[in-house]
Amino acid sequence: MHYKGTLFFRLVRNGWIQGGDENFAIKHDRRGILSMANAGRHTNDSQFFITLAPTPWMDNLYVAFGRVIEGSLTLDLMEEVPTQNERPTKDICISEIQIMDPKDLSTKLC
């Protein structure tokens, strides 16, 4: 599964940006956490979001599966896009994505 070409369709200022259509081990304790979105209990699907601020209330409710290693400036630019009812008024699209093996990131994750 990959998200290349996926649009981000929801942007909550100082909260998260959501796009796309495991377990609770990773905490929502920093900016850049990648987590699965859902519409309530037992409804996880392929949508995901990236936190724009710490959101500890999401722990044990949403499954975090990674974090942004590089691209904080990109998150800043995404957060500045105008919205109407939490929907970006301009398309925000994933143009490139690289999924890395955690073993290769061990020095970057600390």
From TrEMBL:
Q: Which InterPro entries match?
A: Cyclophilin-like_dom_sf, Cyclophilin-type_PPIase_dom
Which GO molecular function entries does the Swiss-Prot or TrEMBL record give? peptidyl-prolyl cis-trans isomerase activity
Q: Which UniProt keywords apply?
A: Isomerase
Could you name the domain of life of the organism this protein comes from?
Answer: Eukaryota
Looking at the record, the residues that make up the PPIase cyclophilin-type domain are: 1-99
Annotated GO CC locations: cytoplasm
PANTHER family, per database record = PEPTIDYL-PROLYL CIS-TRANS ISOMERASE, PEPTIDYL-PROLYL CIS-TRANS ISOMERASE D-RELATED
Descriptive protein name: Peptidyl-prolyl cis-trans isomerase-like 6
